[in-house]
Specification:
Two copies of one chain form a homodimer.
Chain A (H helix, E strand, L loop, with lengths): L1 H26 L6 H8 L3 H7 L3 H9 L14 H18 L1 H13 L3 H27 L9 H19 L5 H11 L1
Helix pairs in contact in A: 1-2, 1-4, 1-6, 5-6, 5-7, 5-8, 5-9, 6-7, 7-8, 8-9
Chain lengths: 184, 184
């Protein structure tokens, strides 16, 4: 009996999360409505608030599906590693669902400390492969040991973010090359 | 009589815009409520919609107050010009009201074509002094004539945006120096 109940709870939670994620990718964070999540998932608002104490808690849970960890490349040179990372990242920025949702998280983080903490975690996860690549480059002596990894990563990732969300210019291979040339 | 009416209309429009701007800087674009603007400004919703055909139109009008045009520096060298521009920009990013509102515009622009067109205009206005500085550097032969100004500007402005809104790291003078060193 307990097992059946557990499964039912898991199914409810899964359908609430799936519906929240659907609304999130369609309308951004501010477009998610608990009323509408309840209606579409068939799970009552009381039950939703039993599993997630606040709207932010549910949003944070749904957002954790956005990122996707992937192992850092290890080609043997920092230039080729960065090229592989930035090319993959550029493609994600221009095609993946998270790229159109992320500004709504950045926006909410300006005012909501819970969302800000979640965004900080997402950011660290997105940047982890870059840090791994820079650390290996330092071990090989390709990048000076005392050079700030955070500065280097801001200099290569910043221009991609700028193009995707601010200037809306395409991010092509020549652009990625010019960014790597500037820092290495 | 017409003049008195005109003045009354101007006063109404001004108080609607002022209240919209207040809500905008406090809660971001998605936090602006026409009901609340009407209540706080004492101007009826019917009158508001007579002046602005849509919520987006009112938001766009209020957002046009965000940017502030300032003349590009002209120190004689591209390095000093960029340093002046980026230092000023870094300070604005870290203190000005528009910096906490801008992500909500970026977010809305993902889904609303009217807001996207307005954001494009704001972006061009923000970047105009950078283009002026790079053009002058080309005239002086400090930057190669065939080098893409857009690529260069993305490389210097992108890292600042990245730090302000994504990594939330401080933007200090050393960081600005390292960014300019990389591109010049």
């Amino acid at each position: 009996m307990v097992q059946i109940l557990d499964k039912r709870v898991e199914r409810s939670k899964a359908s609430v999360l799936a519906e929240t994620y659907r609304q999130l990718t369609q309308s951004g964070l501010s477009g998610v409505s608990i009323d509408e999540v309840s209606r579409a998932s068939g799970v009552s608002k009381t039950t939703i608030y039993r599993h997630w104490p606040s709207r932010s808690a549910l949003l944070i849970d749904a957002c954790s599906r956005l990122g996707r960890a992937y192992p850092p490349p290890d080609t043997g040179t920092v230039r080729a590693d960065l090229y592989a990372l930035l090319t993959n990242f550029a493609e994600q920025l221009q095609t993946a669902a998270w790229a159109s949702v992320y500004p709504s998280i950045i926006d909410a983080a300006e005012r909501d400390p819970e969302i800000a903490a979640m965004q900080c975690g997402l950011h660290l996860a997105f940047m982890a492969p870059f840090h791994a690549v820079v650390e290996r480059a330092k071990d090989r002596g390709e990048v000076q040991r005392d050079r700030s990894a955070a500065d280097l990563i801001a200099a290569v990732v910043g221009p991609l973010f700028y193009r995707r969300w601010f200037s809306k210019e395409p991010i092509n291979a020549d652009f990625v090359d010019s960014i790597i040339d500037a820092v290495i």
